[in-house]
Amino acid sequence: MSTKMKSPTGLRHMVFLSSALLLFLAAALGLAGLVFCGPSPSSAAGSGHVVYIAPLDGVVGVPMEEFTDGVFDSIGDGQGSVLIFRMDTPGGLVDSMSRIMSRIADSNFPVVVWVGPGGARAASAGAFIAMSAHVTAMAPETNIGAAHPVTGSGGDIEESEMSRKVMNDLTAKMRAFARERNRNASVTESMVTDSVSLTAQEAFDQYVVELLAADEEELLAALDGMEVDVKGSAAVISTGGREIVRIEMPFRLRALEVFSRPDIAYLALVAGVLLIILEMRAPGGFVAGIFGGVLLIVAAYGLRMLPVNFAGAALLIGGVIVVVADIAIGGVGIMAVPGIIAMLFGGLILYKAPGGELLRMSYGFVVGVTAAAGAVFLLVLRLVYKALRRKPASGFDAMIGARVKVLASGAESGGTCMALVHGEYWSVSADEAEGELSPGDEVEVTGVRSMTLLVRRVDREYPREEI
Question: Residues 308, 236: one domain?
Answer without folding.
Answer: no
